[in-house]
Design a protein that fits this description.
With 125 residues, this protein is an alpha+beta fold. It has five helices and four strands. It is globular.
Length: 125
């Protein structure tokens, strides 16, 4: 597990590339001055973007299988991750932020649609 990246994952880089190509600049990466440390934060507009890997965050769309060995460990670990994600989003919303969650599988399937989700959030602030 030491090789699992927490920052600059392939899905994060893909979304940032799409944002850059669409002309969106001025965001912060892993902005620590707000609760939850979003992967991408448009600070002035209060838009937080989380790019979630399907396995680690329990994607509701592709529903990845959990490991069959050490089931108790993995179930507790992955459930804690999902609970933490919910807490982060709730805390940010209470602080007046708009939260967008981008799933790895959705980003691979249709990156333009995911870019539009972020752009819609930026327009609604």
């Amino acid at each position: 597990m030491s090789r699992i990246r927490a920052k600059d994952t392939s899905p994060e880089r893909a979304l940032r590339r799409a944002l850059r190509d669409a002309g969106h600049r001025g965001y912060r990466l892993h902005y620590a001055k707000v609760p939850g440390r979003p992967d991408i934060a448009f600070v002035g507009r209060k838009v937080a973007v989380f790019v979630h890997g399907c396995f680690w965050h329990g994607c509701p769309y592709c529903r990845p299988a959990r490991p069959r060995t050490h089931r108790r460990f993995w179930n507790e670990k992955l459930d804690r991750n999902k609970d933490r994600d919910k807490r982060k989003a709730r805390t940010l919303r209470q602080a007046g932020w708009l939260v967008v969650t981008i799933w790895e599988c959705r980003l691979k399937k249709d990156p333009i649609a995911q870019l539009r989700r972020v752009e819609n959030a930026l327009e609604n602030t």
